[in-house]
Amino acid sequence: VNKMRIENISINTIERFYQLGFLRSIEDLYRLENHKNEIVQLDGFGSKSFQKIIDGINNRRDVYDYELMGSIGIQDIGERMFKKILSVYSINDLKSKCEEPGKFMKELINLEGIKDKTADKIIRGIYINTSLINFLLKEVKVKKNTRVYDKKVCFSKIRDKEFEKFLDENNVLVMDSFKKETDILIVPDVNESSSKIDKAKKQGKPVIDLKTAHEYFGYNV
Question: Is 162 found in the same domain as 134?
Answer without folding.
Answer: no
